[in-house]
Amino acid sequence: MINFQLLRDDFPILQRTNRDRPLIYLDSSASSQKPQAVIDAITHYHANEHANIHRGVYELSERASIRHENVREKIKSYINAKHSREIIFVRGTTEAINLVAQTYGRSHFKAGDEIIISMMEHHSNLVPWQMIAKEAGAVLRVIPVTEAGELDLAELQKLISPRSKFIAIAHASNVLGTINPIKEIVKLAHAQKIPVLVDGAQAFPHQTVDVQDLDCDFYAFSSHKAYGPTGIGVLFGKTQLLENMPPYHGGGGMIASVRFANTTYAPVPQKFEAGTPDMAGVVGFGAALDYLQNIGMNNIIAHEKKLLDYASEKLSEISGLRIIGHAQHKLGVISFVLTGIHPHDIGTVLDHEGIAVRAGHHCAMPLMERFQVPATVRVSFGLYNTHEEIDALVSAIHLAKRLFA
Ligand code: PMP
User: Which domains does the chain have, with CATH numbers?
Assistant: First the structure.
C-alpha cells in the first residue's frame, strides 16, 4: 500500500508558499513538479558524469554514451516498444509531432489528401498538420466532440475515405481529461492502411502506455509532464516507417558520411537526432521513470481516480459551476466555468489563496469554440495532490463567488 501523503515529501517545491500561503499545485497537466530523485540525478550527472556522447574515445564519454543508451532502453521497455531504435529523443511532444509532420507528411501528402485530427486537439497536434496540409494542398478533416466531451466515432467512420492519409489524435485531452479509445481508432485506421500518430503528452504521465498493444504508428510524449525535466521528450515510431522517412534536422550525429557531392545518413534513431542532445535531460527523465515505476502506475491511476471522483462531486455541488467534459473515461483533469465570473478572475482569486490552476484556452481554441466558452478554469492532478487540497479549492471558489457577487 503506497502512502501518497508521504510521497509529497519527495517534492521540495511543495514545501514552499504561493502568495504566502502553502502552495496547492493543481496544474500538473501544464507541467508536473519534480521529485528530489530527479533533481539529484541531474545534479550528480553535471557534477560527476558529464561529457559529450557518441564522440569521445575517453572513459567519461563512453560512460555517458552508455548511460544515454540505457535510458533509451528503459523507455523502450516502459512503453513496450519492440526495439530501442524506435525511441527518438526530441525536445518534447511538440517537436515530436512537428518531426512527423515535416518528414512523413512532407514526403507523403499530396494535393487532395486528407489528414484527420479531432476537435479536442492541443494546438501542438493541430498547427503542425495545418502547416504541412497548406504546403501540400492537403485538407484537415476534424472528428467532432460530443456534448459529454467524447470523440464521435460514428463520425470518424464517415470521415475515413480513400483520401484519408493520416490520423493524428490525442490519447487524452488536456482540457476535458477524456481518455480516447486509441485501440479502436487504430483498428479503424489500419483497416484502410492509414497510419496513426498518438499525442501522448497527457496520457503518458497518468496511464500505462503499451505501444504494441495500441498498435499506433507514432506516439509522442514529454518528460516535464511526467515528473522529469523540461527540454526532453520522445517520439516513438515503428521501425519501418522511421526508416523510410527523410531526416528532420541536419547536422552532427545524424550522418553516415558527408561529401560536398552527397551525404548519407545514420540509421534510426540517430538519423533524427542531429546535434548534441539534452544528455542531462535524458538522465533526469530516466530517474523520473524509475520513480514512477517504484510507485507503480496502477497505484497512481487509483489515487488520481479517487481525486477526480472527489473533486468532480464537490465541484458539481457549487451552484453556477459547470464542468465541461463528462467522459466515461477521464484523467484527473477538470475544466469548469462559473456563471458571471471570468475564468481569469477565478484564477486570480485562487492564486491569492495559494492555489495554482490554469485559466485560459489551454492551447485548444477550437474546443473552446465547440463548447461556446472563451476560456475555462482547469484543475489537474498529480500523484502528490490530496483531498484536503480539493477542499481548499472548493472554499476558494466560494470565496471568489462572494467577492464577485
Ligand atoms: N499535446 C497535449 C495534449 C498537451 O497537453 C501538450 C502540453 N500542454 C502538448 C501536446 C505539448 O507538449 P509540450 O509543450 O511538452 O511539447
Answer: 4-30+296-403 (3.90.1150.10), 40-293 (3.40.640.10)
- Please tell me the distance from the alpha carbon of residue 375 to that of residue 367, in angstroms, as a whole number: 10
Tell me which residue of 332, 342, 347, 339 sits closest to 396, measured CA to CA.
Answer: 347
pTM value is 0.98
* Smallest CA separation from ligand 1 atom 8, residue: 30
Residue 216 designated active-site: no
Question: Does residue 103's CB lie within 6 angstroms of at least one atom of ligand 1?
Answer: no
The SS3 call for residue 355 is strand
Q: For residue 189, what pLDDT is reported?
A: 98
Strand duo 196-199 + 87-90: pairing: unpaired
Which atom of ligand 1 lies closest to the CA of 170?
3
Mutate to test the pocket of ligand 1, among 90, 93, 218 (most ligand atoms within 8 A of CB): 93
Q: Looking at residues 323-352, what average pLDDT do you find? A: 97
Angle between helices 93-100 and 127-136 (to 10 degrees): 20
Buried b (16+ CB within 10 A) or exposed e, 105-117: beebbeeebbbbb
At 283-310, the pLDDT tens digits run 999 999 999 999 999 999 999 999 999 9
